[in-house]
Amino acid sequence: MSAEPMTPLEVWAGIECTVNRVGDNYSDQLQRNGHDNRIEDLDLFASLGIRAIRYPVLWERTAPNGVEQADWSWADQRLERLRQLKICPIVGLLHHGSGPRYTSMVDPLFAEKLAEYAEAVATRYPWVSHYTPVNEPLTTARFSGLYGHWYPHGTDDRTFFRTLLNECRATVLAMQAIRRVNPQAKLVQTEDLGHIFSTPLLAYQADLENERRWLSLDLLCGRVNRNHPLWSYLCSGGVEEAELQWFEENPCPPDIVGINRYLTSDRLLDERLERYPAQFHGGNGKHRYADVEAVRVCADGIPSPYTLLKAVWERYQLPVAVTEVHLGCTREEQLRWIKEVWEAAHQLRAEGVDLRAITAWSLLGAFDWNSLLTRVANFYEPGVFDLRSPEPRPTAIAQMLRQLAHGQNYDHPLLEVPGWWKRDERLFYPPVRSVGTGEGLLSLVEDTTPDASAFAPTYRQVTDTAPASSTHPPTHPSTPSPLLIAGATGTLGQAFARLCEVRGIPYRLLSRQEMDITSPASVKDVLKELRPWAVVNAAGYVRVDDAEREPELCRRINAEGAAILAEACMEQEASYVTFSSDLVFDGNESEPYVESSAVAPLNVYGHSKAVAERWVLDKNPCSLVIRTSAFFGPWDEYNFLAVMLRSLASGNPFIAAEDAIVSPTYVPDLVNTALDLLIDGECGLWHLANAGAISWAALAQEVAVLAGLDASQVVARPSSELDWLAPRPTYSALTSERGILLPELDRAIGCYLNERVC
Questions:
Q1: Does residue 380 sit in the same domain as residue 521?
Q2: How far is CA 340 from the centre of its chain?
Q3: Sheet of strand 196-198: strand arrangement
Q4: For residue 289, what pLDDT is reported?
Q5: C-alpha span between 636 and 96 (Å, rounded)
Q6: What does 228-239 look like in DSSP terms, one character per residue?
Q7: Is the distance from CB of 510 to CB of 478 less than 8 angstroms?
């Protein structure tokens, strides 16, 4: 890892490795993401070209029963492998944790105990040069001592101060202990530094929190003296002057200030509680107010990475690195965020700022950060690699990092669109606009935004995305390279258009009149004119029973049309995705079908899809062919569930097959995942269906109950008694050997009932 400021900007990386405690329960991200048992991950990380990695040698994991009984075997193997790979480990000792059970962050001897462990680490690995003894001490102190989320669950200033001072003192003592072994050891101190906005009434609270966000770094730099703006605040909260003077006498300024930047860390304080959901209501004992994500309400936006990083440099004049660059959201938004931070870093370096690196965080993704790790719900968000496949699967982020790490530009048409944090649809609440000196004071402007009942995420919410739906979407004719969607009149084509609009993906939605997929000339002309970066084939013959009477038409559209598009995309070097069906199977299995299962269609429609799969991949092996099952969505009034709910609501019975087992698929899940895979450059066959197997009758009954309707009106009948002309498999449930990417069916049903508009 370089030490000179004008060396090329480096790419670092990190693993979400939090070991946090809630009550008496510990949650270990390394166990949950499997890296605990996969040393081969390190070679995967090295393939990115990274120069350094934030790597855990965590106190709770290594020495849960004391340093004397420490088990170093895990760290021995992995640090040695990193050394062989010539990747500099930035060793973390405590990551949002409170230490082993024999201590806590309010333990008077917490700092000495961590220092003892730190010295043992340095003694065992004297070649390790960079350390982060305590990750984000201020953030951890807020979550543990002020907000009550994590152990010891304090909710007062006194516990917050004690936690923060213990963490900062532990950092100083740990570095002193490490430097007794390795005098050249460097401190890479991470912190969040989210900015606080407020209405004029709450300016005093915003001023306090905006000054408080620097407190951990100020303490380490020995800057907290009697002239510090927070001196009285600290002393009034029970902090002894001698404790603060100790930091003046024992300064331990970071060798690199590491900034972990998250879009939802910036907050707005607003006393107008009626504007915001109740879960954001709180107060300070003087005023009641809502504390919400500023990006969701501030009309002028939030501070850019450039602004924040420049403020850090101007305040401390110390080398800076961005030590976490991560968004839990759709793939193109993750890429846009990395691009924005990367460009800001280059701009600052051009202005003379000693900015060393940006760090791709959450290499393996993260679990349950949507609930701030307060519960174990197995809510997974992918990172550079996606763990939902049998082996960690590289996403488009991996390719981007490889190119950046090797000094190359990463270009993609989707990077030309601003991230959701710069688009109007980010605003969930009546907007407020900055006034005055720009210090975070806000005033109300005209209420033109969506209903405040819309969902707004919490700090580091994994769904850092725009709202889940929008009005009928326009196209983006000014964009030179759109996503082309064939099938303007179908449910799937409409869903792709709607969600592309939400995700900021420029597209052209084409009808058959605009592009006839069965005509090679028509397809070639359109692709030559529009020059799409990718094509989605959402067109098709979908009437399964009618296909028995119109086999040639079905085959021409489903097989020949799909193959014509595939060949044209190969010639134009455009990515391509088309859709197949569970009806390519005969139903003779009793376990869900996977991609390698033999196809044996029972009807004309299924046969047309089986032929399409073969022809498409023969003509264009880079095509992505997605098999899915009968889908349902919130915007389609003709899908199975929509028809069933209308029927029951009208007091009419509804007949459904009791012996046809399927994997119903929620359209938003299908479309969003297909888009991610397309951006990732995936190809070949892939099964996408919500995890689960259920009969049509059981599905109808379950949804009826959840919707508060009379499920007894669902009449279960054998499929032989229904008016189906085309034979269908009695069992066509799907799963995947390549990766289970869609959530379970129960979750999909819940989303459908909450979001349906038909």
A1: no
A2: 17
A3: 196-198, 267-270, 288-293, 281-283
A4: 97
A5: 44
A6: STTHHHHHHTT-
A7: no
Please work out, in degrees rounded to the nearest 5, the angle formed at the alpha carbon of residue 706 by the alpha carbons of 700 and 711: 45
* The pLDDT value given to residue 476: 43
DSSP string, 683-712: -EEEE---B--EEHHHHHHHHHHHTTS-GG
Nearest of 215, 109, 208 to residue 164 by alpha carbon: 215
**Residue 664: left (phi > 0), alpha (psi -120 to 50), or beta?**
beta
129 near 184, Cβ under 8 Å?
A: yes
Q: Please, which residues have CB within 8 angstroms of residue 222's CB and are 6 or more apart in sequence?
A: 247, 248, 249, 250, 251, 252, 253
Q: Residue 420: CB partners within 8 Å, gap ≥ 6?
A: 329, 333, 426, 464, 465, 466, 503, 504
465 in a structural domain: no
Residue range(s) defining the domain that contains residue 98: 10-425
Q: How many folded domains does the chain comprise? A: 2
With a cut of 80, say whether residue 690 has pLDDT above it.
yes
Written as one string, the DSSP assignment of 270-334 is ES-GGGS-GGGEEE-SS-EEEEEEGGGTBTT----HHHHHHHHHHHH-S-EEEEEE---S-HHHH
- Domain finish residue from 425, 450, 466: 425
Contacts of 335 (CB under 8 A, 6+ apart): 396, 397, 400, 410, 412, 414, 415, 679
Residue 475 lies in a domain: no
Tokens of 657: 């097959």
Question: Are 515 and 397 in the same domain?
Answer: no
Helix and strand numbers, DSSP H then E, in the chain? 24, 32
Answer whether residue 456 is part of any domain: no
Residues 383 and 527 in one domain: no
Residue with tokens 């860390």: 265
The 10s digit of each residue's pLDDT in 361-415 is 999 999 999 999 999 999 999 999 999 999 999 999 999 999 999 999 999 999 9
DSSP symbols for 117-183? HHHHHHHH-TT--EEEEEE-HHHHHIIIIIS-SSTT---SHHHHHHHHHHHHHHHHHHHHHHHHH-T
Q: Is residue 461 part of a domain?
A: no
Task: Give the pLDDT confidence of 187-246 residue by residue, as tens digits.
Answer: 999 999 999 999 999 999 999 999 999 999 999 999 999 999 999 999 999 999 999 999
Q: Where residue 689 sits, what CATH number does that domain have?
A: 3.40.50.720
Report the Cα 136 to chain-centroid distance in Å: 20
